[in-house]
Design a protein that fits this description.
The protein is built from three helices and 27 strands. It is mainly β. The strands form two sheets. It has a five-stranded parallel beta barrel. Strands 7-8 form a two-stranded antiparallel sheet. It is globular and about 65 Å long. Mean pLDDT is 94; it is low at 1-19.
């Protein structure tokens, strides 16, 4: 055989491992190439661009909802294109995007939400694990294939008045909930696929900031998501709520909000897992709240930076089945919890194959696992449904916190198994952890320092 050919064959064989190295999900299956593609949205490929100032929508402090919605509808009927927001601030109520219509905001361009609740129609939507009547969001996209939001501009929920009203109501009704004092979300994407929200600032939402429901193949890239914790707390302004989703990438984002940064949702209630379990002994039609529940799978959150938040990654409080979730390569400053598993005693839950790795930062709790009893309601079910958390891995982490292992053992409600702590450097006020709380707990190179 020709020596040159032989040399090339040997080189090729030696080089294959470096090129063919596979990334794996926590359950051992291969992560697809889709998760490596993070090219910014190119609006030149999305059709005609429609600058809103060419259609009578100006920076005058007045509400332009009707004109903006008409523009969206006209673009859809003309075959699609891009709504372009130039520099300036443009006021609007709820907008409903259609197939083929995209949104792009130039640097300095702001879509500012109305602070009047009547500018957000009440309709059937998804809130806190239930399908119910609630205010629409500022930006709504339903049933769309290929929806994008892009640019360097800002979508601002103008939430101060809503926050103030919420806390005022709490003063005379301490049990006031988000359904008692309803408020619009900032962005709501439902029943969609192939979505990319890229580069923009999402801020000051009245309620949840970015809610993705019953959708797949969603990328949230290079976003700056913010709501204040002081001087006025922005209640329940989660940065990103993932609710019955498959294939989601959150990458290169900054998140600082007065609630959870990433919350995994999916449903709640004593029969919330009806689509996975046969309940021959009950009439499921008597439990309409279970309609629309589902699983979350294949979620990666990576290369992000966190400011203040309640949870960097929170599973619950309305979640049923979560599988293959990765949080990696992030920096954390002032989070309450790095990983938070909310275990609802009225809901059957299974959180499995979750990996948290390559983290630096500080917060109150490294890991928090405890019963979550907010709005607890067994709805007549005689027994508490059992829940499970298994194959939870936390590794390659340096963290400064108050409590390392804030885990409540509750075997009559939930069972923990197959946890791995590896290569951890923890400085904490409370450093003890209880391997006996978990069936098959593996601890390797766990270094703790009391502060």
């Amino acid at each position: 055989m020709n020596f040159r050919i032989l040399s090339l064959m040997v080189c090729t064989l030696l080089c294959i491992p470096s090129f063919a190295k596979k990334e794996l999900w926590p359950d051992g299956t291969e992560i697809g190439e889709w998760f490596r593609e993070t090219t910014p949205v190119d609006i030149e490929k999305l059709g005609k661009q429609y600058r809103i100032t060419d259609y009578g929508i100006v920076n005058d402090g007045k509400l332009h909802t009707e004109k903006l919605q008409k523009l969206i509808d006209d673009i859809a009927s003309s075959g699609g294109g891009v709504v372009v927001v130039p520099e300036g601030t443009y006021m609007t109520g709820a907008l409903f995007f259609k197939q083929g219509v995209h949104l792009h905001l130039y640097d300095g361009g702001v879509l500012m939400g109305s602070n009047n609740p009547s500018d957000y129609p009440i309709l059937k939507t998804r809130i806190e694990g239930e399908t119910c009547l609630y205010y629409s969001a500022l930006i709504n996209a339903d049933g769309i294939d290929g929806f994008t939001i892009s640019g360097k501009g800002t979508i601002d929920g103008n939430g101060y008045t809503f926050w103030k009203h919420f806390w005022e109501r709490r003063t005379w009704n301490p049990k006031c909930t988000n359904k008692d004092e309803q408020r619009p979300r900032l962005v709501y994407v439902s029943n969609c696929k192939n979505v990319q929200i890229d580069g923009v600032k999402l801020q000051n939402s009245a309620f949840w900031t970015t809610h993705i429901y019953n959708s797949e193949n969603v990328k949230l890239l290079r976003l700056h998501i913010y709501s204040p914790a002081q001087p006025v707390k922005a209640p329940s302004t989660d940065a990103i709520d993932l609710d019955v989703v498959k294939n989601v990438l959150v990458k290169d984002c900054y998140m600082s909000v007065n609630d959870d940064a990433i919350a995994i949702k999916g449903g709640k209630g004593p029969y919330a897992d009806y689509w996975r379990t046969s309940y021959d002994d009950i009439d499921i039609s008597k439990y309409p709240e279970v309609i629309g529940n589902g699983a979350n799978s294949n979620i990666i959150i990576e290369d992000c930076e966190y400011g203040f938040c309640h949870g960097c990654l929170t599973l619950g409080s309305e979640s049923v089945f979560d599988h293959n979730i990765i949080l990696r390569r992030i920096k954390v400053n002032q989070a309450n919890n790095l990983l938070w598993l909310k275990m609802r005693p009225d809901t059957p839950q299974q959180y499995e194959y979750v990996t948290v790795e390559d983290i630096e930062g500080n917060g109150k709790n490294f890991i928090l696992i405890a019963p979550w009893t907010q709005f607890y309601d067994l709805k007549g079910r005689a027994t508490i449904p059992m829940s499970y958390s298994d194959h939870i891995t936390m590794r390659n982490i340096t963290f400064d916190c108050d409590v390392f292992f804030n885990v409540k053992q509750q075997e009559d409600q939930y069972h923990l198994s197959n946890f791995t702590f590896e290569n951890l450097n923890i400085k904490a006020k409370k450093t003890d952890f209880h391997t006996e709380f978990v069936e098959n707990f593996t601890a390797k190179n766990v270094n703790t320092e009391k502060k």
